TrEMBL record:
Chief location bin: cytoplasm
Localization (cell): Cytoplasm
GO biological process: GMP salvage; guanine salvage; hypoxanthine metabolic process; IMP salvage; purine ribonucleoside salvage
Entry keyword annotation includes Ribonucleoprotein: no
Phosphoribosyltransferase domain ranges (all copies): 14-160
Organism: Chelatococcus daeguensis
EC number: 2.4.2.8
Keyword tags: Cytoplasm, Glycosyltransferase, Magnesium, Metal-binding, Nucleotide-binding, Purine salvage, Transferase
Record lineage: Bacteria, Pseudomonadati, Pseudomonadota, Alphaproteobacteria, Hyphomicrobiales
PANTHER family: HYPOXANTHINE PHOSPHORIBOSYLTRANSFERASE (PTHR43340:SF1), HYPOXANTHINE-GUANINE PHOSPHORIBOSYLTRANSFERASE (PTHR43340)
Protein name per Swiss-Prot or TrEMBL: Hypoxanthine phosphoribosyltransferase
UniProt pathway annotation: Purine metabolism; IMP biosynthesis via salvage pathway; IMP from hypoxanthine: step 1/1
């Protein structure tokens, strides 16, 4: 029988402290007419906590959501990104903060950034909870990064594997133990 356990990488208190740091850094940049755009689905928990931290840092952001899906084919270097749910507000002349869970290939964030700039945003910055270094397919750096993430598939704090584990209040790695083998 296989049982799954989660090894914690970043716990609740570490994440909470980092969110306050990021919020203070965003506030220090004195954004104009700030619009936070959370990239669904994986960023929902990070965004919810970060937005409240932004409030504590003295900001009054408006909040929007985009939902994008990216198709990755191992043989094709440029992945395609499709918009499943678009931003509803006008972004013209506004400072936008894109919020995402992980920056990996960078395709999702680069696509969203280009789109919002093309619509006339004044600036588009990005905050990601995790960054996996060395995995970039397109040139983009996040302006605010929670933690550098080891090259592992992580779950929790909004992130899933096959729709599971989004509810976890921490970020971890799924580990599979083969119980039968252990008991032999
Ligand atoms: P990319 O930067 O366009 O490759 O997109 C990164 C997206 O892939 C993230 O927003 C996540 O939704 C997903 N992703 C990448 N790595 C992981 C992981 O380790 N766990 C869960 N989702 C991941
Ligand atoms: Mg995502």
């Amino acid at each position: 029988m296989q049982t799954k356990s989660i090894r914690v990488l970043f716990d609740e208190s570490k994440i909470a402290a980092r969110n306050e740091d990021i919020a203070r850094a965003v506030a220090a940049s004195k954004p104009h007419d700030l619009l936070v755009v959370a990239v669904l689905k994986g960023s929902f928990m990070f965004a919810a906590d970060l937005i409240r931290a932004l409030h504590r840092a003295g900001l009054e952001p408006q909040v929007e959501f985009v939902h994008m899906s990216s198709y990755r084919e191992a043989t094709v270097s440029s992945g395609q990104v499709e918009i499943l749910k678009d931003v509803e507000s006008d972004v013209r002349d506004r400072d936008v903060l894109l919020v995402d869970d992980i920056l990996e290939s960078g395709r999702t964030l680069a696509f969203a950034k280009d789109l919002l700039m093309a619509r006339g945003a004044r600036t588009v910055k990005s905050a990601v909870l995790l960054e996996k270094p060395g995995k970039r397919a397109v040139q983009i750096d996040a302006d605010y990064i929670g933690f550098e993430c080891p090259d592992l598939f992580v779950v929790g704090y909004g992130m899933d594997v096959a729709h599971r584990y989004r509810q976890l209040p921490f970020v971890g790695v799924v580990e599979t133990e083969d119980k039968d083998r252990k008991e032999q």
